[in-house]
Q: What sequence folds into this?
């Protein structure tokens, strides 16, 4: 009897410890969740503030839509439209090129046999962990060296910008499409051929639709990263192109908080919506 | 529903090599129009390879393969008009059941109304009318199997190829689908090549069985021939249970002396080449109390182990010729034996067969 | 597809099939598929990197280690380099400490919590760095919510509240936020592959929570953790935007290199500093691939083994 009651005391105690640990753990998880969304939420709140300066988010008169009411003027004064177009253009073209380059490479390394295939993969995905700053500097220096050494003038323009963007993004489709190909059941292709489909017909109507989650996720990664890219654009865009991140960075350096908050809120709304849709449709978080 | 196409398949000395591995060694056999032929053999025997060569997914390394008299070597897979049912079913997961079936129909010259009609027909044929709008993921294993079959037969292929189509199902469902598939096949009169490593499946379903081992064809024959007159020791062992006696044929050609010294009465057509051995199926043997046994062959022994299996009882009897398995029907009038009983194992002359391990003789 | 006539489609398809048949089967065709990627890599990454290397050892018209010497000798660059590495280590540890519980809760918690965590971790990733950093700028700045909260918690006083902006602390907080997803998702991927029964078995055998974590989860999740840590570390030592905004005059290697290239144009010195980052990056690329292979997928750790 004695031992039984000791045991139940002990288990009551450890149950108590367990409950505390449970709560601490839960608190930590919700704390981290708060940490992840706080800087985004604060920008949104700030954009509804009447007084542009001062430190209180909830100053008198909150919420106010003053800044949104004046949005057209704001956008016009910043030349936002041309920045947005430049960013969209570079992001879309980068997405198309990276999908093609990465998709073909993924197909090759998953479906074909290579000696040293592990080394080859490392080489192919190396831009994933290579510092962006160094990529852009290396391209910049090479271009200006070539300009000096030979008589070819490589000036920073859309094409150098595109080169930098493709370089840092193309490994993402290799990963997402490669993952899809690795899990692909080759018998599906054979079944299609058996039912009368040509090779091309099979690729188009069976293989590609089944790789769709990887393709969509890869495209979303490339688009988002390219659209938001700052440092590579800083060095490679030249003087005539100012992408959205460059514009935003200049704003913050020029101490223009309300403009950042309003523009930031709108850009954020667009990107978060895109991400949630892609996550729902294609589960892009699996590929990070 | 019946097809105009003939569906005669002929393998002539077909060889398939993967690098150093010879998956198929000079296989020769014919599947007649409308015939159901099972390819039976253990894992790695080369069964799948034979199917895939016919479907056009692998090239032959030698020999000739003809479909309705036409050499298929140069014909790409999508023009061969073979209907394949994969072990994994390979249903397109992004398409509904209907779209899966339409996929083949659209690419095999069927048009509009005809397609709708055929989809309904094949679906009701496999008892899945009304399931057309489901995705494969929302079907049970048995239902997926039926869709795969429906998809393959819908295009009226000249030959239906099935690679262990029931392998992924549990026993009860397998038994049920065995019956359904054979009914479907004979209704359609469609030439069928059916791969299995399950001997009872082959015995119950097929018109003829091709037994393979390590890329070689060991025997071709009807289920009864294969069971009652196996050509090689491998076939005898692989299909059903068997008691083997090592030993030698005597010079008179009518008896066989076992390693244990017993002399058995045997019959055989011609003296087989290779190392001979005698074998008897367990259900052809009977037991009698020691000294009371009569028949062509009698071997004395002791009951070692008794296993009740429902309709029959299995007795393991130790004798000078090793341990024998005797299987007796459970009939109430029969006297049962118990462990330790001294018995005679008896069987008839006709049930004693002599085989060798040399396949050249049988095939 | 419907706008093309069937005949046209068949024609195209036949021609392409012939082409694939002719070239697709040849031994060199596979290299053709890789050609665009390799071209981009060699032309835009490897050759230019070699150029940085060359530039870092070029003194006038001959070779020499002058630039490296000036980096090593200078107390300033040493402290920038050390600070950068310190920030990298701290951010790596912090993202792990915050990211593991989050990943675990996402995998083992309810569907709702799991979905919320995935969205809350993924969504910031898609938002322009400048905007996110601006959020921290507000939160951490003087009189902002975080210093106020800390004062209320008796960390610092009203007169001298804790300084979280324009110093190393600001950079660490900002980078931890930016890089958290790169820790959470690889860990989530590997936790998904660990059956819950393993933990239950350990509990059943008498292990407490800490024991389950230390002896079951940690060893099994190690490949994911390693991958996450390498990603976070490499990204944090090379990050530019966050340190540039939240660090104020506190420099890291990335901001230092950038200012050398944009203002003084001393290519040799800039290249020598850049080579430091390249060396770390190369080590990490190799480690990352190892970790990913151990995590079970050949490319990027997702998907099962073939
Ligand atoms: N693509 C291939 N490359 C190399 N060897 C192969 C290939 N396909 C099959 N083989 C080999 O060929 C032999 C026959 O294989 P096959 O798949 O035809 O056997 P099977 O009778 O279908 O066996 P199972 O019952 O296991 O399916 C095996 O030894 C196998 O390892
Ligand atoms: Mg097989």
A:
């Amino acid at each position: 009897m004695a031992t039984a009651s000791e045991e139940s005391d002990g288990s009551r105690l450890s149950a108590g410890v367990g409950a505390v640990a449970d709560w601490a753990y839960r608190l930590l998880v919700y704390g981290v969740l708060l940490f992840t969304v706080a800087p985004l939420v604060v920008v949104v709140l700030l954009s509804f503030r009447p007084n542009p300066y001062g430190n209180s988010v909830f100053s008198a008169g909150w919420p106010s839509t003053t800044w949104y009411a004046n949005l057209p003027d704001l956008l016009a004064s910043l030349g936002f439209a041309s920045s947005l177009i430049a960013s969209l253009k570079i992001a879309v073209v980068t997405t198309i090129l990276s999908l093609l380059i990465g998709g073909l490479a993924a197909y090759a390394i998953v479906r074909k046999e290579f000696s040293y295939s592990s080394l080859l993969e490392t080489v192919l995905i190396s831009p994933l962990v290579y510092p962006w700053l160094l990529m852009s500097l290396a391209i910049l220096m090479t271009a200006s060296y070539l300009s000096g050494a030979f008589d070819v003038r490589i000036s920073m323009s859309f094409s150098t910008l595109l080169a930098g963007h493709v370089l840092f993004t193309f490994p993402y489709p290799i990963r997402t499409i490669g993952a899809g190909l690795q899990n692909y059941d080759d018998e599906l292709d054979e079944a299609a051929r058996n039912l009368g489909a040509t090779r091309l017909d099979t690729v188009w109507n069976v293989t590609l639709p089944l790789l769709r989650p990887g393709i969509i996720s890869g495209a979303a990664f490339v688009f988002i990263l390219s659209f938001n890219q700052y440092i590579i654009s800083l060095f490679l865009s030249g003087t005539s192109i100012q992408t959205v991140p460059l514009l935003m960075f200049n704003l913050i350096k020029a101490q223009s908080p309300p403009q950042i908050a309003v523009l930031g809120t709108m850009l954020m709304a667009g990107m978060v919506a895109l991400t949630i849709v892609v996550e729902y449709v294609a589960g892009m978080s699996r590929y990070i | 529903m019946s097809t105009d196409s003939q569906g005669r398949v002929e393998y002539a000395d077909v060889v398939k090599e993967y690098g150093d591995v010879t998956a198929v060694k000079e296989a020769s056999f014919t599947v007649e129009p409308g015939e159901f032929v099972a390819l039976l053999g253990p894992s790695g025997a080369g069964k799948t390879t034979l199917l895939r060569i016919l479907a056009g997914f692998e090239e032959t390394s030698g020999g000739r393969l003809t479909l309705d008299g036409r050499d298929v070597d140069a014909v790409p897979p999508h023009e061969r008009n073979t209907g394949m049912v994969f072990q994994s079913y390979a249903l397109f997961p992004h398409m509904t059941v209907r779209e899966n079936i339409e996929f083949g129909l659209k690419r095999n010259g069927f048009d509009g109304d005809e397609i709708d009609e055929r989809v309904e027909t094949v679906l009701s044929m496999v008892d899945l009318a009304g399931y057309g709008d489901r995705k494969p993921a929302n079907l049970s294993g048995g239902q997926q199997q039926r869709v795969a079959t429906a998809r393959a037969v819908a295009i009226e292929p000249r030959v239906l190829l099935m690679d262990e189509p029931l392998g992924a199902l549990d026993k009860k469902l397998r038994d049920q689908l065995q019956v359904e598939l054979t009914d479907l096949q004979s209704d359609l009169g469609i030439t069928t090549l059916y791969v299995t490593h399950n001997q009872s499946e082959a015995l119950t379903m097929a018109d003829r069985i091709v037994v393979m081992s390590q890329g070689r064809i060991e025997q071709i024959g009807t289920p009864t021939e294969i069971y009652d007159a196996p050509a090689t020791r491998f076939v005898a062992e692989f299909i059903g249970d068997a008691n083997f006696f090592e030993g030698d044929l005597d010079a008179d050609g009518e008896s066989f002396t076992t390693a244990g010294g017993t002399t058995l009465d045997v019959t055989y057509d011609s003296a087989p080449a290779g190392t001979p051995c005698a074998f008897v199926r367990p259900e052809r043997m009977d037991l009698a109390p020691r000294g009371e046994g009569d028949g062509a062959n009698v071997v004395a022994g002791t009951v070692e182990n008794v296993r009740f299996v429902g309709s029959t009882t299995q007795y393991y009897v130790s004798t000078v010729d090793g341990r024998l398995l005797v299987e007796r029907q459970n009939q109430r009038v029969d006297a049962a034996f118990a462990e330790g009983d001294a018995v005679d194992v008896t069987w008839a002359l006709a049930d004693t067969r002599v085989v060798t391990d040399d396949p050249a003789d049988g095939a | 597809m419907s706008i093309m006539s069937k005949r046209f489609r068949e024609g195209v398809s036949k021609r392409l099939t012939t082409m694939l048949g002719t070239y697709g089967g040849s031994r060199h065709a596979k290299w053709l598929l890789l050609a665009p990627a390799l071209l981009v890599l060699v032309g835009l990454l490897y050759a230019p990197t070699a150029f940085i290397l060359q530039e870092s050892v070029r003194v006038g018209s001959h070779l020499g280690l002058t630039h490296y010497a000036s980096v090593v000798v200078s107390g300033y660059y040493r402290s920038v380099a050390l600070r950068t590495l310190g920030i990298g280590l701290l951010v790596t540890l912090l993202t792990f400490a915050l990211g593991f519980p989050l990943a675990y809760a996402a995998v083992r918690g309810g569907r709702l919590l799991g979905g919320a965590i995935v969205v809350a971790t993924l969504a910031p990733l898609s938002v322009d760095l400048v905007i996110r950093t601006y959020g921290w700028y507000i939160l951490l700045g003087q009189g902002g919510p975080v210093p106020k909260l800390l004062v209320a918690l008796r960390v610092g006083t009203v007169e001298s509240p804790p300084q979280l902006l324009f110093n190393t602390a600001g950079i660490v907080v900002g980078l931890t936020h930016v890089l958290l997803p790169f820790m959470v998702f690889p860990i989530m991927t590997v936790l998904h592959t660990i059956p819950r029964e393993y933990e239950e078995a350990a509990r059943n055998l008498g292990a407490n929570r800490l024991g389950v974590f230390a002896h079951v989860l940690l060893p099994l999740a190690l490949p994911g953790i390693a991958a996450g840590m390498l990603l976070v570390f490499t990204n944090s030592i090379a990050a530019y935007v966050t340190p540039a905004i939240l660090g104020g005059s506190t420099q890291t290697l990335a901001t230092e290199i950038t200012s050398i290239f944009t203002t003084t144009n001393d290519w040799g010195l800039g290249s020598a500093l850049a080579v430091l980052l390249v060396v770390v990056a190369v080590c990490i690329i190799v480690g990352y691939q190892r970790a990913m292979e151990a995590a079970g997928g050949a490319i990027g750790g997702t998907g099962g083994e073939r």
About this structure: The domain at 241-356 of chain B is CATH 2.40.50.140 (OB fold (Dihydrolipoamide Acetyltransferase, E2P)). The pocket of magnesium ion (ligand 2) is lined by residues B 47-48, 163 (CB under 6 Å).
